[in-house]
Request: fold
Amino acid sequence: MPAVSTIIPTYNRAEFLRMAITSVLNQTFQDFEIIVVDDASEDHTHEIIDNFGDRRIKYIRHEVNKGVTAARNTGVLSSSGNYIAFLDDDDEWLPRKLQMQVVLLEDSSSTVGGVYTSHVKIDRATGKILDRVVAQKRGNIGNDLLKDYCLIGTASTILLRKQCFDRVGLFDESIEFGEEYELLIRVAKEFDFECIQECLVKYYVHGTNYPPTSR
Reply:
């Protein structure tokens, strides 16, 4: 059983996906599985997975497009790790991301349900850094989340204990936008959070967001 299940939902982004998966494989912490949930892509996503040839990569395909929220839920339900991490198919992790989060969670009380990190926003077309979002809030962050949607910023920064889902349930598939934000508010009602101020995630800004028709 791996320590971490990394869930990557994807839809028609084969070339972005290659870089996202590579950033997981390059982690200093190697006790993980990668669950790629293909939300009925029409490109060569499956070939990208095959070319890696890594048994830790589990490929699941939706036969019809269900949306990113359903894809994340499919990943959670198929996971076997004690910790759940999310990586959007167009983002990347820096090499120490998982190691630092796992160590922090293992050293924390069971009242801490998750760890998030700082991240940098990058224009994919130019490579220009647009913003740096520094993780600062820890402990009971529920009220802070309600006031500031951007407190955590992106699902790609998060590592959660599997017990969080046992306690609060899965992502709400009736929500069309901000499903990760709504989940985290539920988690924050039951658990504390820790944060890592080091920037460990690259969040790319570009013109091909997960298409609205796939939500």
Notes: The chain has a mean pLDDT of 93.
